[in-house]
Design a protein that fits this description.
The complex is a heterodimer of chains A (363) and B (225).
Chain A (H helix, E strand, L loop, with lengths): L1 H9 L1 H31 L2 H5 L4 E5 L11 E2 H5 L1 E2 L2 E14 L9 E8 L11 E2 L7 E5 L1 H6 L6 E4 L5 E8 L3 E2 L2 E7 H9 L9 E2 L1 E5 L9 E2 L4 E5 H6 L4 H32 L2 H9 L4 H33 L10 H28 L2 H5 L1
Parallel strand pairs in A: 5-11, 7-9
Antiparallel strand pairs in A: 1-13, 1-15, 2-12, 3-14, 4-5, 4-8, 4-13, 6-9, 7-11, 8-9, 10-11
Helix pairs in contact in A: 1-10, 2-8, 2-10, 2-11, 8-11, 10-11
Chain B lengths: L1 E13 L4 E13 L3 E5 L6 H8 L7 E6 L9 H11 E4 L11 H12 L5 H10 L15 H14 L4 E5 L7 H17 L3 E5 L11 E6 L2 E5 L3
Parallel strand pairs in B: 3-7, 3-8, 5-6, 6-7
Antiparallel strand pairs in B: 1-2, 1-4, 8-9
The chains are: A alpha+beta (363), B alpha/beta (225).
Bound molecules: adenosine-5'-triphosphate (ATP) and magnesium ion.
């Protein structure tokens, strides 16, 4: 520690630059990871919000909820610990009174029964109470300026909805979700309300604690239960996105780690004549190695730590439209990885330190 | 008492097809309180002998005893420990750590040894070598002579029984050079150390008890007239 610290204090500029490189590299990795993660999350937050175990869709739908059509009568035949009806459809809305291309907003409608478990927690305003009201994802307020009491107009129909409240983390397929009644959903999708057994919805969401959805019983061969995890993976576009970004980030992390490792390695090698001098004085390789590792640890912790703080700071300052999201597991994992790789780089160079011939250093 | 004893040591450097006999079979010893000079032309094997005694390389044949320990036959780790404890190296090129100030050069020894020398003792040593006023300076802010004196302080700090100095005065003017040799002679006498100084400069050997001449790897005692 003594040597490590004294050297850092003596060559301040040099070490400031080294730390600077560490900060930039780690910042890049953290930030891109957060972006990729945030985008992936935007596909699924509304689904995660259900805290459900399974989703029942028609066999024909190929697990695509857009293609799944279940009648209310069929839905009755599904039983589990807890079930909830869901009508889902994509749509375009505009705030009443606005016009033009830029006022159009892509959304997803969730038609639900307000007393069932998939009813979201309203963080602002009130829940919807009839077929002309809706609770919206908060991003519609943050990004589109829609307020409680505003009326939104559906594209291509006369249907209007009054926004009564907001909920958070409700995005489906990167679009904000509007929660409304099943009747309202049927109006949007089928242009008429039908609450008879023939009335149609999209899916039945099930909470079931048993293993492999064994507790879900369906008295109908046309309906299939999917595990929520499998279902999310099959949300159109989701797996392609996750794979692409996963690979990109994976490579980025690996390359950044290798760069930092090599960087530290070269840095230590540069000092071999100095180590030779110390060894001639009888200072043991062990002591030198320890201080090299201590120094690397200080440098990488300060560098990566600052990169992390910078990332967290940036995430607060980012506009809401950027799909950035922090994830403790990723941030922690990357932090650990970068520090470990830096120390590995140091360990690697320590092998050279041990082999340095003091004669060469002083000759 | 013999602090340094070389028994039939020799050193060959082989570079494949040609063998250089840098040091021919040598028997040589230095007593406690003895200040020995080795002079001789360049390339004659002086540094080779000194580094073998200091354990920085091993002899091809024979062995070196430091305080009766078979120093040259120990493994590297033990040799480093023994070198740290018993041998103070003063080299031609400054052997100071560039990022430590004068006082920290000495503190490094404490850190490694996990002991603590009294402040007064350190001050005394630095004062003796006239570098106490420079204690906050880094090696780059010292003159060649000052640096050499700090290196001596560093070598004497942990009170080694053997001092090996390879051209300690090479970068100094003659006045400073005499000073350095005086200090070495004084330390050798007062603390009963065994000191070997390699030098080119014939004028510096007056203070030495014995003078050896190295020529083509052969060491011979020069009888003082
Ligand atoms: N590692 C080595 N490999 C091969 N030959 C070497 C090696 N070290 C020294 N020599 C040779 O051994 C001989 C003695 O070298 P040494 O360094 O002991 O000379 P020296 O007396 O100290 O000279 P100077 O006064 O110039 O310092 C030289 O011919 C040198 O070239
Ligand atoms: Mg020499």
């Amino acid at each position: 520690m003594f040597l490590a610290w004294k050297e850092i204090k003596y060559s301040k500029t040099r070490f400031a630059l080294i730390i600077g490189v560490m900060i930039l590299v780690s910042y890049l990795v953290y930030f891109l990871t957060g972006l990729a993660y945030g985008l992936a999350q935007d596909n699924r937050t509304s689904v995660d919000k259900w805290e459900a175990d399974g989703i029942v869709l028609t066999d024909e739908s190929n697990s695509n909820i857009n293609m799944s059509m279940i009648t209310l009568g069929q839905a009755e035949e599904v039983s589990g610990d807890e079930t909830a009806l869901l009508g889902q459809t994509a749509g375009v809305i505009r705030k009443e009174g606005t016009s033009g291309e830029s006022a159009k907003i892509n959304v997803t409608f969730f038609g639900i029964e307000p007393d069932e478990f998939i009813m979201p927690e309203v963080i602002e305003g009130k829940p919807f109470t009839n077929n002309d009201e809706a609770v919206a994802d908060i991003s519609l307020k943050e990004e589109e300026g829609i307020e409680i009491g505003d009326i939104v107009q559906l594209a291509g129909s006369d249907k209007q909805l009054t926004v009564t409240g907001f909920t958070e983390n409700a995005k489906f397929n990167v679009a904000p979700v509007l929660y409304t009644t099943i009747g309202s959903f049927q109006e949007i999708r089928f242009e008429k309300i039908d609450d008879s057994d023939d009335g149609r919805i999209s899916a039945v969401i099930v909470r079931d604690n048993s293993e492999d959805l064994a507790g879900i019983e369906i008295a109908n061969n046309d309906l299939i239960p999917y595990k929520i995890g499998d279902y999310i993976y099959k949300i159109p576009g989701y797996s392609a996105q996750v794979l692409t970004f996963g690979l990109m980030i994976g490579f980025l992390v690996v390359i950044a780690a290798v760069v930092i490792g090599i960087f530290i390695y070269v840095l230590t090698l540069q000092k071999s004549s100095l180590f030779g001098v110390m060894k001639a004085q009888g200072i043991s390789s062990g002591y030198i190695a320890k201080s090299v590792i201590a120094q690397t640890f200080i440098l990488s912790t300060v560098g990566v730590g600052t990169g992390l703080l910078l990332t967290l700071g940036t995430s607060l300052a980012l506009p809401a439209t950027v799909p950035y999201q922090n994830n403790g597991l990723f941030l922690g994992g990357i932090t650990l990885l970068l520090i470990i790789v830096a120390v590995l780089g140091a360990l690697f160079s320590v092998r050279t330190v041990v082999k340095i011939d003091p004669l060469e250093a002083i000759g | 008492m013999k602090l340094i004893e070389c028994k039939n040591i020799s050193k060959n450097f082989g570079d494949g097809h040609k063998e250089i006999e840098a040091l021919k079979e040598t028997n040589f010893s230095v007593e406690a309180g003895e200040f020995v000079a080795i002079i001789g032309p360049s390339g004659s094997g002086k540094s080779t002998l000194l580094t073998i005694i200091g354990g920085l390389q091993t002899p091809s044949k024979g062995k070196v005893l430091i305080k009766d320990n078979p120093f040259s036959e120990e493994e590297e780790k033990k040799r480093a420990a023994l070198r740290f404890k018993e041998i103070g190296f003063i080299l031609q090129a400054s052997n100071l750590v560039p990022f430590l100030n004068v006082r920290d050069q000495l503190r490094l020894v404490n850190k490694v040894e996990k002991t603590k020398m009294e402040q007064e003792q350190t001050d005394g040593l630095l004062e003796e070598l006239d570098v106490l006023r420079l204690e906050k300076n880094y090696p780059s802010d010292l003159s060649g002579g000052e640096r050499q004196r700090v290196a001596i302080a560093r070598a004497l700090y942990h009170d080694p029984s053997v001092i090996l100095a390879d051209e300690p005065t090479a970068s100094l003017d003659s006045e400073r050079a005499f000073e350095v040799v005086d200090i070495l002679a004084r330390e050798t006498k007062s603390k009963q150390k065994a000191t070997i100084m390699v030098t080119h400069d014939e004028r510096l050997i007056d203070k030495c008890d014995k003078v050896y001449v190295m020529k083509d790897g052969v060491l011979s005692l020069r009888e003082n007239a």
